[in-house]
Amino acid sequence: MFVLASKSPRRLELLKQFFPEIEVIAPEIDESKITSKNPANLVMKLSQAKGRDVIVKHKKDNVIAADTVVVLENEVLGKPKDKADAGRMLEKLSGKKHKVITGVSVFIKDFCFSFYEETEVEFYPLNEDEIKWYVETEEPLDKAGAYGIQGYGKIFVKSINGDYFNVVGFPVAKFYHKLKKNKIKIPILNL
């Protein structure tokens, strides 16, 4: 049995393709206490903390945990605090390239491994009305960097270099290849 240590409906949707019976248990950690100057290290530390929180309570299960951040010119943009913060983030991203970094930790019995994936995204320039409209949809409020590439936010994306699903919130292909490398079977694939 696999458990997803995340509240993200996007991650759940992507992982259900591999694990139809996956269960969701939201981790209870204070993310503000986990820090690192290196964004890739930060998302791996956050995913490890989320996974550990869930695995301690559900020892018989296998746990998958993930965390995503957006990085613009060395500034880490997590989820916005409110609509004003979302607008501020979108203004910063307007017309610029940024990185989306997702850290993943997988706990199988007494074994754990972590990795990260990085994707570069470039935005078209956004005007004030576009930002205001998008913030009012409330789509950006629960997403790192205040946008969802799979939703209305897709109209702002000029280019993407790397894994699209990483920007959605979970690097599916890299996850599969890491499981394969570690000889962890995915029942639905019969591989």
SSE arrangement:
Layout: E1 2-5, H1 9-16, E2 23-24, H2 39-57, E3 62-72, E4 75-77, H3 83-93, E5 97-108, E6 111-123, H4 128-136, E7 157-161, H5 164-168, H6 172-181
Parallel strand pairs: 1-2, 1-3
Antiparallel strand pairs: 3-4, 3-5, 5-6, 6-7
Helix pairs in contact: 3-4
Tag the structure with descriptive keywords.
191 residues, alpha/beta, Maf protein, 7-stranded mixed sheet, 6 helices, 32% helix, 26% strand, globular
Could you please describe the fold and organization of this structure?
The protein is α/β, with parallel strands linked by helices. It has a single domain (2-189), classed as Maf protein (Alpha-Beta Complex), CATH 3.90.950. It has 6 helices and 7 strands; from the N terminus they run E-H-E-H-E-E-H-E-E-H-E-H-H. The protein has helices at 9-16, 39-57, 83-93, 128-136, 164-168, 172-181, and strands at 2-5, 23-24, 62-72, 75-77, 97-108, 111-123, 157-161. Strands 1, 2, 3, 4, 5, 6 and 7 form a 7-stranded mixed sheet that branches. Strand 3 and strand 4 (75-77) form a beta hairpin. Helix 3 packs across helix 4 (128-136).
In summary, what is this structure?
This protein has 191 residues and is an alpha/beta fold. It has six helices and seven strands; from the N terminus they run βαβαββαββαβαα.
End-to-end separation in angstroms reads: 17 Å
Oligomer class: single chain
**CATH top level assignment:** Alpha Beta
The radius of gyration over CA amounts to 17 Å
| CATH architecture assignment name | Alpha-Beta Complex
Structural class: alpha/beta
The major pleated sheet works out as: 7 strands, mixed
| CATH topology category name | Maf protein
Can you tell me the overall shape? globular
Helicity range: 25-40%
Low-confidence sequence ranges:
none
Overall number of structural domains = 1
Average pLDDT for all residues: 93
Strand coverage percent? 25-35%
- Helix-strand sequence: EHEHEEHEEHEHH
Number of strands: 7
Number of helices: 6
